[in-house]
Specification:
338 residues; alpha/beta; Rossmann fold; 12 helices; 4-stranded parallel sheet; homotrimer; 2 domains
């Protein structure tokens, strides 16, 4: 695809080469995200961060990514007081707000709303999540993390062996990740979930149509025995009709260090889209994994900054100029990303 | 008036020459708002954006305008958690907050509150709306839009023919616009409203005292036949005692492309302070006007950025230095303001 | 202590030399806070402003301080929509959010929460208030104000005579100020409160163990007769079981210009952590003191910016480079800090 001036709305808009372009630019963002260098390539540019549904970490991640390229951020959070709530159309909202910034990152509770907004926007729009529908930067950061975690061991996305665990029915991140995996070769996916929360059939079919292996299972321990990645997910309790129904599934497929040691291959990478539940009966990943160097969950969120920097640089067409507007910095950084 | 260090509280503080100064500076802001150039003239300056009543677009417009001059923005939205709600006086709030920034843009639900705040502030305060009272930057952007829309056709504010349509009783924007028009010559104003929502008598008298024609009417179609501008407004439902009462008036004087074609002169400009209502029975301006090149409603909001940039530049006394701190930019801009 | 890379969590972490270092750096921040000069020493750095409990002025003060050093600010306010509310641990929240910024200023309603967060953070954390526990930058700005107010008259913190007045039981600021005073010599503290709202015994003992005089009193007028500073505080109504109980104490020990003139030594300085209550029956400091040049309450909040700039400069290890990245500015400043 042509990135300059384009909207980023769905993982389905990418071909393999596009994903590789994003990851290549993300790699080059590392010295800036790790604060060895500062760039001002987007000095004077404004991100409109329009979060009509709250999401602290996605919002801050987008905002920090834009700041790290030298740009400014104007934000809106919440919905109740918006003009949309007073009966304004998304068309009008988009026409107006797109006059205030150079690019927009938008989150909205209604599926399809971001695409509708983008159609009327005069600047590129990046989908930061539209309900149960899409959250492309999350899928990209997940796949980018897989690539980076495996790089040191001579393995890659082609030939990947991955177990996805938990609420595969409502978990938006695993749906999008599967769609991205369809762009690559020879992937083995083990889908571990309760019967009632199985991965939707059409996604399983997509995986198989792409030539991948897709196995479904209800047995955690056997399923994680021969994979490179265990991707655990939270029960999406807001999608259930009652707390009680969600509780039926919470805490199933709980991974801890003992199970990891007994069943996983050495250096199996553990991922999770976060937040993970810390309540005793609801945990997906136990705290005793926190010292496991293969727990990649915080490297995932760090990678999110890199991927979002790459998306901004690409849609604003400055990816090749980032280094030209840069300098080294010397403020205290010893603790960063430690 | 002397702009440097002054508060901008009311349209009544301006003489004609002041309005022309603001518009002249706004004109010079275009290359920056359209992103052909970036200026850092306010690099290091801080805007305190104090929105004790929410208003996404006004807040973001002020913030973006300040960013476009190179400054930073610190924001507050909402009232419930403010010290004012805990019993602090506006005097104290103003003394404290004005120590944190170089200029303040403030919105507050109570009429007169912004002026009270400004009296205690140690930095210039721009009124971003104080209840039913004043919203001077809105009136300025409306008049600036009129000037720009008519410029291409050899007409101007002097000699203007304008129809104001809708809720003229509670619509703050039309009140302020009329006050500004009193600074100019030979204006013809047609005031189209339900009987119950007529323009307040003292404003009609002001128009006439300024030598203008002011006609009142309940007939939309005849009233828009010989004007340069149709300025439509929303029913201010929050001012009515019930939803039912507001509904009586909603959707009256609805303009669509058919009425426009049959009744208006060619190139009659359509304006609206936004948001316009998109609900089927409540529309003031139909969606079929969206392709009409004379629909200026989004150029209005774009012009708001220019006018607010001009106000900031004037009160901080940097209007003549904007270009000296500027450079051209080359990030992707093809879609902007399209 | 070693400031670079350290958390600022409690006044108890400081020795006298540390406090003096902070004040010395704060002094050097004056030309920047007063807008005679602009520095970009933290150009490219990001402050994560995480206010899980709202506090407009503390939040804006931290943010402005960071902007004044050239850095950017990414903010979060409120708690309801946070991942913590969905069951995420503070450990996870800290690991994630500390990947988005170079330093964090955090406020949270639960005592101890900021320290728990800091233990997992990968960047320095400054405590912006954790419930009834600590708010070290407030205590520092109070002491810094005392130092500056007395400097012109050849007096200092050593040998200070101070009356603390009001709700000494629940008032976090006076507790912390007493702890800081224990680092200095020969202080006389008069503690004026209702019997039920006396200063906690262990703090009184700390003062005495430090060699200070600490007298308790219920008589305002005699207590303020021979002091350098009257430090008045608000009734912390949120700590009482009912509004009625809080009202019992509100408005006691009310200071006005008449009492000041009759009982205080000339030039006795009046301080208050703000907000002060402006409701007629609840005032601690009457409005007729507003013209008293010894009312230092707004100089206190101004000093807060200087102290927070100093803390940022120290933990990010740029205190000695601020001037090297600076230039003079010439935008309108006549009204600032007036």
């Amino acid at each position: 695809m042509q990135f300059a001036g384009s909207h980023i709305l769905s993982v389905t808009q990418f071909e393999r080469a596009d994903v590789e372009t994003i990851f290549s630019v993300a790699d080059r963002m590392e010295p800036y995200a790790h604060r060895r260098r500062v760039t001002k390539v987007l000095d004077g540019a404004i991100l409109g961060s329009m979060f009509f549904e709250p999401s602290t970490r996605t919002r801050v991640s987008f905002g920090s990514a834009f700041n790290l390229l030298g740009g400014e951020v104007r934000e809106t959070t919440g919905f109740e007081n918006s003009a949309i709530a007073k009966g304004e159309s998304l068309y009008d909202t988009a026409r107006v707000l797109s006059g205030y910034s150079d690019v927009i990152a938008m989150r909205h509770p209604a599926a399809g709303s971001v695409a509708e907004f983008a159609a009327a926007s005069r600047v590129p729009v990046i989908n930061g999540g539209d309900g149960a529908n899409e959250h492309p930067s999350q899928a990209l950061l997940d796949l980018y993390t897989i690539k980076k975690e495996l790089a040191g061991r001579g393995r890659g996305i082609d030939g990947l062996r991955i177990a996805m665990v938990g609420d595969l029915r409502y978990g938006r991140t695993v749906h999008s990740l599967c769609k991205l995996l369809c762009l690559f070769d020879r992937v083995q996916v083990v889908l571990v979930s309760p019967q009632e929360l199985r991965m939707p059939g059409e996604i399983v079919e997509d995986l198989r149509a792409a030539g991948h292996e897709a196995l479904e299972s209800e047995a955690l321990e056997a399923s994680i025995a021969h994979v490179d990645i265990v991707y655990s997910t939270r029960i999406q309790e807001e999608r259930f009709s009652s707390q009680q129904e969600a509780d039926l599934y919470r805490g199933r497929f709980r991974l801890n260090q003992t199970i990891y040691t007994e069943h996983c291959e050495p250096n199996t990478v553990i991922m999770h889209p976060l937040p993970r539940d810390s309540r005793e009966t609801a945990r997906e990943l136990d705290d005793d994994l926190n010292d496991n160097p293969n727990l990649a969950i915080f490297r995932q969120t760090d990678n999110g900054v890199l991927v979002r920097m790459a998306l901004f640089a690409l849609v604003l067409d400055v990816a090749d100029e980032v280094d030209a507007h840069a300098r080294d910095v010397n403020w205290y950084t010893a603790g960063r990303f430690g």
